[in-house]
Amino acid sequence: xxxxxxxxxxxxxxxxxxxxxxxxxxxxxxxxxxxxxxxxxxxxxxxxxxxxxxxxxxxxxxxxxxxxxxxxxxxxxxxxxxxxxxxxxxxxxxxxxxxxxxxxxxxxxxxxxxxxxxxxxxxxxxxxxxxxxxxxxxxxxxxxxxxxxxxxxxxxxxxxxxxxxxxxxxxxxxxxxxxxxxxxxxxxxxxxxxxxxxxxxxxxxxxxxxxxxxxxxxxxxxxxxxxxxxxxxxxxxxxxxxxxxxxxxxxxxxxxxxxxxxxxxxxxxxxxxxxxxxxxxxxxxxxxxxxxxxxxxxxxxxxxxxxxxxxxxxxxxxxxxxxxxxxxxxxxxxxxxxxxxxxxxxxxxxxxxxxxxxxxxxxxxxxxxxxxxxxxxxxxxxxxxxxxxxxxxxxxxxxxxxxxxxxxxxxxxxxxxxxxxxxxxxxxxxxxxxxxxxxxxxxxxxxxxxxxxxxxxxxxxxxxxxxxxxxxxxxxxxxxxxxxxxxxxxxxxxxxxxxxxxxxxxxxxxxxxxxxxxxxxxxxxxxxxxxxxxxxxxxxxxxxxxxxxxxxxxxxxxxxxxxxxxxxxxxxxxxxxxxxxxxxxxxxxxxxxxxxxxxxxxxxxxxxxxxxxxxxxxxxxxxxxxxxxxxxxxxxxxxxxxxxxxx
RNA sequence: GCGGCUGUAGCUCAGUGGAUAGAGCGCUUCCCUCCGGAGGAAGAAGUCGGGGGUUCGAGUCCCUUCAGCCGCGCCA
Length: 647
Hints:
The chain is an alpha/beta fold. Among the domains are: about 1-85, 2-Layer Sandwich (Gyrase A, domain 2), CATH 3.30.1360.70; about 255-360 and about 390-440, no CATH class. The chain has 23 helices and 17 strands. The chain starts with a helix and ends in an 8-residue tail after the last helix.
């Protein structure tokens, strides 16, 4: 196509202008539009100074004159589409290619980055919930897809085990109370799983002597126990991590205090008793800069007098602020509280530095967070930007900014309040743009679980949490009632993953438990898996009849419309994967799997595979069956769903 | 107030700026001498929330408006 356009330009039929017009070849929706369509004539008609159909005619003749073996026919249709019809033999020649590639079919070399994908990362004070299940399914599949697209992928789980965390403290105290036979504190953790954790460590506690054990000891033990439960639930769900990274290890290694010193030194953090807040108008435009004084009573307009009283009485040292408003955040954030304890943001700075600076040296970080964290994007980006800013300051010495940033524009009134100087502004904005380029935060949206047509509660009144492992077990029990425990887990995992991945991660959706628990054709998971099992059955049957699958059959025998449609669908897999890797929309793989299964069923219905009196046709169709199996299994593998040979 | 998500067939939802907007469920019919019927074929069903704009062309991109769900701590 490019060649043809280029020829026409050289020969003076088309003006030079046309060279810039994009050439797009797309799949057609309707068979009468041929196999592929090209819209070039319409896109370029203005520049060419010809009407689209005229231009299309010219292109058509030129292409046909080239005598490409793939093209059988071209017609100019509609407003100016070029509809290409391909030779069936050319289409059929892809079958042996697919057979050669085998399990590599889904792979491509479109990406070449080193990517760190962090996902799930829930606190070690509770089980993986069905809400986090979406992040687990999404993160693991996205990782698979990015890897298939040619990237080196590192899967990571961040353990929020900072000893200063209030939540972890409370969790430890709750467990301690249970072990000691006392009632748990009013605001403590009360679910069954807390008792399970207590039971898990009780023996060791008793042997060490209860009175000697501190809350610290309980925190460590309770957390270990919980982590183990989380890991086993994730394993059952088909999710594995390369690294389980401990927040506390950063504190112990002194990395956090190093970062804090560096931030103070470079001026992105300080203890001035003010807090900058930005009032934003539509579109993120800064409307007003508010600098609040933080001296004396922290009284703001707080409705809760106890809370502010507590803050005042605990006051020991001035609050340390991260001036995150310099990096696009809408308010400054606390790094170190009045009582001296560090916030999670402090460790996040050190954590992100670590991710970038490890030997494996990630080019890009992807962090997958739940819907309750979307306000965290700005904060996290600011944290990384501050980290870059502090690091560049440290390297270049004091005054190191970005020399020759080229932006000599003066400070606006708003900028003056935030940055104070042109140099500071430019350096901070440069750091921010680097942070945006290298950190990508993906938020998945809320899942609502529907049972009997009504929303199922995520958290029960007795303090129990609807855990992912329970979801897997419940579905497995319904869908594989006669299976072994392992079969039930696999079935539950397959169904749950498929359902989580059916919709874009970026959109809220209802998880239909009633449908998920149906062991019938209504359930899309089984529809897809059944297609795979059916192919395997045909292949078994063929083997019994003495047929072998080879890549040297006479594939030109494949001329039926449904055979050709199936071949094209099979060949789509690597392109689907590539697209998913580009826009992270991995839900398309479930749609693809359903469509591929359907296309196979169509073929199966119209084209009998095993026919003793037509051995050549049989061998060709067996090859196509095997190719379909390769694509189906390829898609299911990426989704983390099993491809059963029998059902 | 600010931000995120959503609005497409009776229901649940697909949909790469392309031609007559597609599936599944449900509804009305039909196909088992059969390699697995957990399958297939046909039909009815739509002002793509409303209004502007961008362009050869908009469900898709931009603006605006209406409706719904969710989130905005010195918790993580």
